[in-house]
Fold this sequence. Notes:
Layout lengths: L21 H8 E2 L2 H6 L5 H12 L19 H7 L5 H8 L3 H8 L2 H9 L1 H10 L7 H8 L13 E3 L4 E3 L1 H6 L5 E3 H8 L3 H5 L3 E3 L3 E3 L4 E3 L4 E4 H8 L3 H5 L3 H4 L7 H4 L2 E3 L2 E2 L6 E2 L3 E2 H9 L14 H8 L3 H9 L20
Antiparallel strand pairs: 1-12, 2-3, 2-9, 4-8, 5-8, 6-7, 10-11
Helix pairs in contact: 1-18, 7-9, 17-19
Organism: Fusarium albosuccineum
Protein name: Cyclin-like F-box
Amino acid sequence: MADPAPPGYRSNVEYRFRQEQADAIVRTTAYYRDDFRRAVISFPHSEHEGIRSSIATPFRQPSVEAVPSGFERLPLELLHIIIPLLDMGSVFALRQASVRCRVTVDSLKKYQLSVSHGLDPFCALLRTRLASTVSLSDFYSALSTKACALCGGFAGFIFLLTWTRCCFRCLHLSLETQVRSLNYLRRILRLTKAQIAQLTTFKTLPGVYTPREVSCKSRVIATSVDQAEIISGWQLGRRLWPGPDQLVVVEGDSKYNCMSTCALPYRDGRTGKVEQGGSCAGCQLALEKGIIGAWGETNKVYSQDDFLEHFRWCEQAQRLWISSEQRNRTPDELPVAARGGCR
Protein backbone atom coordinates (compact mmCIF):
# COMPACT_ATOMS: atom_id res chain seq x y z
CA MET A 1 0.00 0.00 0.00
CA ALA A 2 1.41 3.41 -0.96
CA ASP A 3 2.27 5.87 1.80
CA PRO A 4 -0.25 8.71 2.18
CA ALA A 5 0.80 12.08 0.79
CA PRO A 6 2.18 14.51 3.40
CA PRO A 7 -0.18 17.30 4.53
CA GLY A 8 0.05 20.29 2.22
CA TYR A 9 1.17 18.26 -0.77
CA ARG A 10 -1.98 16.75 -2.26
CA SER A 11 -5.20 18.75 -2.16
CA ASN A 12 -8.25 17.18 -0.57
CA VAL A 13 -10.54 18.14 -3.42
CA GLU A 14 -9.98 18.38 -7.15
CA TYR A 15 -9.19 21.90 -8.33
CA ARG A 16 -11.39 22.91 -11.24
CA PHE A 17 -10.49 25.48 -13.87
CA ARG A 18 -11.80 26.72 -17.19
CA GLN A 19 -10.25 25.34 -20.36
CA GLU A 20 -9.22 28.82 -21.50
CA GLN A 21 -7.06 29.07 -18.35
CA ALA A 22 -5.02 25.97 -19.20
CA ASP A 23 -2.15 27.66 -21.04
CA ALA A 24 -1.79 30.34 -18.36
CA ILE A 25 -1.75 27.72 -15.60
CA VAL A 26 1.04 25.82 -17.33
CA ARG A 27 3.11 28.96 -17.94
CA THR A 28 2.69 30.00 -14.30
CA THR A 29 3.11 26.76 -12.38
CA ALA A 30 5.33 24.59 -14.62
CA TYR A 31 8.88 25.22 -15.76
CA TYR A 32 11.22 23.96 -18.44
CA ARG A 33 14.13 21.85 -17.17
CA ASP A 34 17.01 23.61 -18.86
CA ASP A 35 19.33 21.83 -16.39
CA PHE A 36 18.29 18.53 -17.97
CA ARG A 37 18.95 19.87 -21.48
CA ARG A 38 22.42 21.06 -20.46
CA ALA A 39 23.17 17.66 -18.91
CA VAL A 40 23.13 15.95 -22.33
CA ILE A 41 24.59 16.86 -25.73
CA SER A 42 23.67 20.47 -26.41
CA PHE A 43 25.07 23.31 -28.45
CA PRO A 44 25.03 27.03 -27.65
CA HIS A 45 22.37 28.91 -29.59
CA SER A 46 25.13 31.12 -30.99
CA GLU A 47 26.75 28.05 -32.54
CA HIS A 48 23.59 27.33 -34.53
CA GLU A 49 23.23 30.86 -35.86
CA GLY A 50 25.85 30.36 -38.55
CA ILE A 51 24.48 27.05 -39.81
CA ARG A 52 20.72 27.29 -39.25
CA SER A 53 20.15 29.19 -42.49
CA SER A 54 22.24 26.76 -44.54
CA ILE A 55 20.63 23.65 -43.03
CA ALA A 56 17.03 24.72 -42.54
CA THR A 57 16.42 27.54 -45.03
CA PRO A 58 15.37 26.56 -48.57
CA PHE A 59 17.46 27.87 -51.45
CA ARG A 60 15.93 29.99 -54.15
CA GLN A 61 16.07 28.46 -57.59
CA PRO A 62 19.25 29.58 -59.43
CA SER A 63 18.88 31.79 -62.47
CA VAL A 64 21.26 29.52 -64.42
CA GLU A 65 20.31 25.84 -64.32
CA ALA A 66 23.10 23.25 -64.14
CA VAL A 67 22.91 20.00 -66.11
CA PRO A 68 21.01 17.55 -63.85
CA SER A 69 22.62 14.32 -62.71
CA GLY A 70 21.00 10.91 -63.10
CA PHE A 71 19.55 11.13 -59.59
CA GLU A 72 18.09 14.55 -60.29
CA ARG A 73 16.41 13.32 -63.47
CA LEU A 74 14.10 11.09 -61.43
CA PRO A 75 10.50 12.29 -61.15
CA LEU A 76 9.92 14.57 -58.16
CA GLU A 77 7.25 12.21 -56.81
CA LEU A 78 9.79 9.38 -56.75
CA LEU A 79 12.42 11.55 -55.07
CA HIS A 80 9.91 12.41 -52.36
CA ILE A 81 9.58 8.68 -51.67
CA ILE A 82 13.31 7.89 -51.81
CA ILE A 83 14.80 10.77 -49.82
CA PRO A 84 12.96 10.08 -46.51
CA LEU A 85 14.40 6.55 -46.63
CA LEU A 86 17.96 7.87 -46.79
CA ASP A 87 20.01 8.15 -43.61
CA MET A 88 20.61 11.65 -42.23
CA GLY A 89 24.24 11.62 -43.33
CA SER A 90 23.21 10.90 -46.91
CA VAL A 91 20.51 13.57 -46.79
CA PHE A 92 23.10 16.06 -45.56
CA ALA A 93 25.48 15.06 -48.37
CA LEU A 94 22.71 15.13 -50.97
CA ARG A 95 21.87 18.73 -50.12
CA GLN A 96 25.47 19.66 -50.87
CA ALA A 97 25.55 17.87 -54.23
CA SER A 98 23.83 20.67 -56.14
CA VAL A 99 21.41 23.53 -55.75
CA ARG A 100 18.69 21.44 -57.39
CA CYS A 101 19.22 18.61 -54.86
CA ARG A 102 19.09 21.11 -52.03
CA VAL A 103 15.84 22.59 -53.30
CA THR A 104 14.35 19.09 -53.59
CA VAL A 105 15.34 18.09 -50.05
CA ASP A 106 14.17 21.41 -48.64
CA SER A 107 10.77 20.95 -50.25
CA LEU A 108 10.12 17.97 -47.97
CA LYS A 109 8.01 18.83 -44.93
CA LYS A 110 9.65 16.00 -42.97
CA TYR A 111 13.08 17.52 -43.50
CA GLN A 112 12.05 21.09 -42.67
CA LEU A 113 10.28 20.11 -39.45
CA SER A 114 13.01 17.69 -38.36
CA VAL A 115 15.90 20.13 -38.68
CA SER A 116 13.90 23.13 -37.45
CA HIS A 117 12.90 21.47 -34.17
CA GLY A 118 15.72 18.93 -33.89
CA LEU A 119 18.85 20.85 -34.85
CA ASP A 120 20.78 19.68 -31.77
CA PRO A 121 20.14 15.96 -32.48
CA PHE A 122 20.89 16.46 -36.18
CA CYS A 123 24.24 18.11 -35.45
CA ALA A 124 24.99 15.50 -32.79
CA LEU A 125 24.34 12.65 -35.23
CA LEU A 126 26.76 14.19 -37.72
CA ARG A 127 29.48 14.90 -35.17
CA THR A 128 29.28 11.56 -33.35
CA ARG A 129 29.31 9.65 -36.66
CA LEU A 130 25.88 8.15 -36.00
CA ALA A 131 24.13 9.94 -38.87
CA SER A 132 24.30 6.80 -41.03
CA THR A 133 22.15 4.88 -38.52
CA VAL A 134 19.06 7.12 -38.61
CA SER A 135 16.85 7.78 -41.63
CA LEU A 136 14.96 11.00 -42.25
CA SER A 137 11.72 9.07 -41.69
CA ASP A 138 13.05 7.77 -38.36
CA PHE A 139 13.98 11.31 -37.35
CA TYR A 140 10.54 12.69 -38.19
CA SER A 141 8.84 9.77 -36.47
CA ALA A 142 10.76 10.48 -33.25
CA LEU A 143 9.82 14.16 -33.43
CA SER A 144 6.18 13.08 -33.64
CA THR A 145 6.42 10.65 -30.70
CA LYS A 146 5.43 11.82 -27.22
CA ALA A 147 5.87 8.74 -25.02
CA CYS A 148 9.04 7.31 -23.53
CA ALA A 149 9.63 3.91 -25.15
CA LEU A 150 10.74 2.53 -21.78
CA CYS A 151 8.16 3.80 -19.27
CA GLY A 152 5.40 5.49 -21.27
CA GLY A 153 5.85 8.92 -19.65
CA PHE A 154 6.60 12.14 -21.50
CA ALA A 155 9.87 11.75 -23.41
CA GLY A 156 11.83 14.94 -23.88
CA PHE A 157 15.00 13.19 -25.05
CA ILE A 158 16.32 10.99 -27.83
CA PHE A 159 18.91 8.27 -27.16
CA LEU A 160 21.10 8.45 -30.25
CA LEU A 161 22.62 4.97 -30.21
CA THR A 162 19.30 3.21 -30.77
CA TRP A 163 17.30 6.32 -31.76
CA THR A 164 14.89 5.74 -28.90
CA ARG A 165 12.60 8.29 -27.27
CA CYS A 166 13.19 8.35 -23.50
CA CYS A 167 12.63 10.45 -20.40
CA PHE A 168 15.45 11.74 -18.20
CA ARG A 169 14.82 9.13 -15.51
CA CYS A 170 14.96 6.18 -17.91
CA LEU A 171 18.08 7.62 -19.50
CA HIS A 172 19.84 7.03 -16.19
CA LEU A 173 18.03 3.98 -14.83
CA SER A 174 17.19 1.70 -17.77
CA LEU A 175 19.52 -1.04 -18.93
CA GLU A 176 18.68 -0.17 -22.53
CA THR A 177 20.29 3.26 -22.20
CA GLN A 178 23.48 2.30 -20.38
CA VAL A 179 26.61 3.35 -22.30
CA ARG A 180 30.28 2.85 -21.49
CA SER A 181 33.58 3.28 -23.28
CA LEU A 182 34.46 0.58 -25.78
CA ASN A 183 37.80 -0.03 -24.05
CA TYR A 184 36.04 -0.70 -20.74
CA LEU A 185 33.50 -3.11 -22.24
CA ARG A 186 36.14 -4.86 -24.34
CA ARG A 187 38.14 -5.55 -21.20
CA ILE A 188 35.23 -6.54 -18.93
CA LEU A 189 33.34 -8.63 -21.50
CA ARG A 190 36.47 -9.92 -23.27
CA LEU A 191 35.09 -8.87 -26.62
CA THR A 192 36.77 -10.24 -29.73
CA LYS A 193 37.48 -8.17 -32.83
CA ALA A 194 34.63 -9.94 -34.62
CA GLN A 195 32.22 -9.05 -31.81
CA ILE A 196 33.39 -5.44 -31.70
CA ALA A 197 32.75 -5.17 -35.43
CA GLN A 198 29.07 -5.95 -34.76
CA LEU A 199 28.66 -3.09 -32.29
CA THR A 200 27.26 0.34 -33.08
CA THR A 201 29.87 2.73 -31.73
CA PHE A 202 30.24 6.50 -31.67
CA LYS A 203 32.76 9.15 -30.71
CA THR A 204 31.74 11.25 -27.72
CA LEU A 205 31.84 15.04 -27.93
CA PRO A 206 33.73 17.28 -25.49
CA GLY A 207 31.44 19.15 -23.13
CA VAL A 208 29.86 19.31 -19.69
CA TYR A 209 27.49 16.45 -18.89
CA THR A 210 25.12 15.12 -16.20
CA PRO A 211 23.28 17.30 -13.64
CA ARG A 212 26.52 17.32 -11.65
CA GLU A 213 28.21 19.13 -14.56
CA VAL A 214 31.05 16.70 -15.23
CA SER A 215 33.57 18.17 -17.68
CA CYS A 216 34.68 15.77 -20.44
CA LYS A 217 37.42 17.15 -22.68
CA SER A 218 38.60 14.14 -24.67
CA ARG A 219 36.70 12.19 -27.35
CA VAL A 220 36.15 8.53 -26.50
CA ILE A 221 34.70 5.66 -28.53
CA ALA A 222 31.65 4.38 -26.66
CA THR A 223 28.90 1.84 -27.20
CA SER A 224 25.74 0.34 -25.71
CA VAL A 225 26.18 -1.96 -22.72
CA ASP A 226 22.98 -3.77 -23.65
CA GLN A 227 24.15 -4.46 -27.19
CA ALA A 228 27.64 -5.47 -26.05
CA GLU A 229 26.38 -7.99 -23.52
CA ILE A 230 23.96 -9.53 -26.04
CA ILE A 231 26.76 -9.97 -28.57
CA SER A 232 29.20 -11.30 -25.97
CA GLY A 233 26.70 -13.63 -24.32
CA TRP A 234 27.45 -12.13 -20.90
CA GLN A 235 24.93 -10.44 -18.65
CA LEU A 236 27.08 -7.62 -17.38
CA GLY A 237 24.21 -5.19 -17.05
CA ARG A 238 22.07 -7.63 -15.06
CA ARG A 239 24.89 -8.13 -12.59
CA LEU A 240 25.92 -4.48 -12.26
CA TRP A 241 22.41 -2.99 -12.35
CA PRO A 242 19.94 -5.54 -10.93
CA GLY A 243 17.47 -2.85 -9.93
CA PRO A 244 16.79 0.89 -9.60
CA ASP A 245 18.23 1.05 -6.06
CA GLN A 246 21.57 -0.36 -7.18
CA LEU A 247 21.71 1.94 -10.20
CA VAL A 248 22.47 4.89 -7.95
CA VAL A 249 25.80 3.26 -7.12
CA VAL A 250 27.04 3.59 -10.71
CA GLU A 251 25.54 7.03 -11.33
CA GLY A 252 29.05 8.42 -11.67
CA ASP A 253 29.30 6.59 -15.00
CA SER A 254 26.06 8.05 -16.32
CA LYS A 255 28.09 10.68 -18.14
CA TYR A 256 28.29 8.24 -21.06
CA ASN A 257 24.49 7.94 -21.13
CA CYS A 258 24.27 11.73 -21.32
CA MET A 259 26.99 11.87 -23.98
CA SER A 260 24.79 9.75 -26.25
CA THR A 261 21.56 11.72 -25.79
CA CYS A 262 19.97 14.99 -26.93
CA ALA A 263 16.87 16.91 -25.95
CA LEU A 264 14.18 16.64 -28.63
CA PRO A 265 10.80 18.38 -28.37
CA TYR A 266 7.56 16.69 -29.29
CA ARG A 267 5.51 18.01 -32.19
CA ASP A 268 1.84 17.13 -32.44
CA GLY A 269 1.26 16.20 -36.08
CA ARG A 270 -2.43 17.10 -35.87
CA THR A 271 -2.20 20.56 -34.27
CA GLY A 272 1.40 21.49 -35.07
CA LYS A 273 1.96 22.35 -31.40
CA VAL A 274 5.49 21.79 -30.10
CA GLU A 275 6.08 20.72 -26.48
CA GLN A 276 9.34 20.48 -24.57
CA GLY A 277 7.68 19.36 -21.35
CA GLY A 278 7.80 20.90 -17.90
CA SER A 279 8.22 20.07 -14.22
CA CYS A 280 5.88 21.19 -11.47
CA ALA A 281 6.88 24.38 -9.63
CA GLY A 282 4.47 23.39 -6.87
CA CYS A 283 6.33 20.14 -6.19
CA GLN A 284 9.61 22.06 -6.14
CA LEU A 285 8.08 24.50 -3.64
CA ALA A 286 6.89 21.58 -1.51
CA LEU A 287 10.46 20.26 -1.47
CA GLU A 288 11.89 23.65 -0.48
CA LYS A 289 9.27 24.01 2.29
CA GLY A 290 10.15 20.59 3.69
CA ILE A 291 6.68 19.25 3.00
CA ILE A 292 8.29 16.44 1.02
CA GLY A 293 11.80 15.06 1.10
CA ALA A 294 12.92 12.65 -1.56
CA TRP A 295 9.25 11.65 -1.84
CA GLY A 296 7.35 13.33 -4.63
CA GLU A 297 7.74 14.10 -8.29
CA THR A 298 9.98 17.18 -8.37
CA ASN A 299 12.05 15.81 -11.27
CA LYS A 300 9.19 14.44 -13.32
CA VAL A 301 8.65 16.12 -16.69
CA TYR A 302 5.07 16.31 -17.96
CA SER A 303 3.35 16.98 -21.25
CA GLN A 304 0.85 19.83 -20.99
CA ASP A 305 -2.17 17.53 -20.69
CA ASP A 306 -0.51 15.35 -18.06
CA PHE A 307 0.64 18.38 -16.10
CA LEU A 308 -2.88 19.80 -15.97
CA GLU A 309 -4.12 16.50 -14.53
CA HIS A 310 -1.34 16.67 -11.93
CA PHE A 311 -2.18 20.32 -11.18
CA ARG A 312 -5.76 19.42 -10.24
CA TRP A 313 -4.40 17.66 -7.13
CA CYS A 314 -1.15 19.52 -6.40
CA GLU A 315 -1.91 21.89 -3.53
CA GLN A 316 1.28 23.96 -3.79
CA ALA A 317 0.89 24.45 -7.54
CA GLN A 318 -2.67 25.62 -6.94
CA ARG A 319 -1.42 28.11 -4.32
CA LEU A 320 1.07 29.50 -6.84
CA TRP A 321 -1.69 29.93 -9.41
CA ILE A 322 -4.03 31.65 -6.98
CA SER A 323 -1.29 34.00 -5.72
CA SER A 324 -0.47 34.96 -9.32
CA GLU A 325 -4.00 36.37 -9.63
CA GLN A 326 -4.44 34.30 -12.78
CA ARG A 327 -1.00 35.26 -14.10
CA ASN A 328 -1.40 38.97 -13.54
CA ARG A 329 1.70 38.96 -11.33
CA THR A 330 4.55 36.70 -10.24
CA PRO A 331 3.46 34.18 -7.58
CA ASP A 332 4.61 35.07 -4.05
CA GLU A 333 6.60 31.90 -3.41
CA LEU A 334 7.74 30.93 -6.89
CA PRO A 335 10.85 28.72 -6.45
CA VAL A 336 14.11 30.06 -7.87
CA ALA A 337 14.46 27.00 -10.12
CA ALA A 338 11.08 27.72 -11.69
CA ARG A 339 11.54 31.39 -12.54
CA GLY A 340 12.40 30.65 -16.15
CA GLY A 341 8.87 29.43 -16.70
CA CYS A 342 7.64 26.78 -19.12
CA ARG A 343 8.42 27.27 -22.81
